[in-house]
Amino acid sequence: MSFKDLPPEARPREKLIARGAAALGDAELLALLLRTGIAGKNVLQLAQELLDTFGGIAGLLQTGVDDLKAVKGLGGSAKRAELTAVLELARRAMAERLKERTVFDSPEAVAHYLQLHIAGRAHEVFAVLFLDAQHRLIAMEELFRGTLTQTSVYPREVVLRALHHHAAAVVLAHNHPSGGVEPSRADEALTQTLKAALALVDVRVLDHVVVARGLSLSMAQRGLL
């Protein structure tokens, strides 16, 4: 079933043109991208199923091509490619925002940026946001994977990457696939180790942010730096 099979008042395209994009719900906006449903399920129902499967727009923004392939109705490469392209544009838009302004003018933007990139990973990822002297984003790099300890994250590698980017400061970040964002003792110890190593080359650690799906925690705000 496609949009033409829906009643006129329920067609997202006509509603958007008449009332603007803000008038549409998440499922309606997503339906505009999908365009068609599948046998026994119209396009709005398929869009809502996608949102339910991945935990809303925020969860969907963290999906990859392989995740979408498992959804019935997205078996064709064209739909997956289009949807993946839109999701990647959202990630890049957030990155541009952080490159244009001081990161800590908008700490929620940092949390959203990390949500888009690493919160939904099935494995633990350690990333570093490298910042310039005005604390604007230069680059983000995922440096390590797996259980994070002082022995699995190498301070020397973090320092080398900071020097490569000529960074003046960094924000450390990692995800908790289990769903909680409470920092562990190992997280706190790792933060202090990296803070000391980076201080030797005059690079400040501004924060260590822990994220999970829909959740984030700033260790700086907790007084753990």
Automatic annotation (TrEMBL):
Keyword Zinc in record: yes
This protein's record includes keyword Repressor = no
Q: Read off the SUPFAM superfamilies from this record.
A: RuvA domain 2-like
- GO terms for biological process? proteolysis
Per the database record, which ranges form the MPN domain?
103-225
A molecular function annotated in GO for this UniProt entry is: metallopeptidase activity
Keyword annotations: Hydrolase, Metal-binding, Metalloprotease, Protease, Zinc
Pfam families linked to this entry = RadC, UPF0758_N
Family matches, as NCBIfam families: PRK00024.1 (NF000642), radc (TIGR00608)
Similarity field: Belongs to the UPF0758 family.
Name used for this protein in its record: JAB domain-containing protein
Organism whose genome encodes this protein: Variovorax guangxiensis
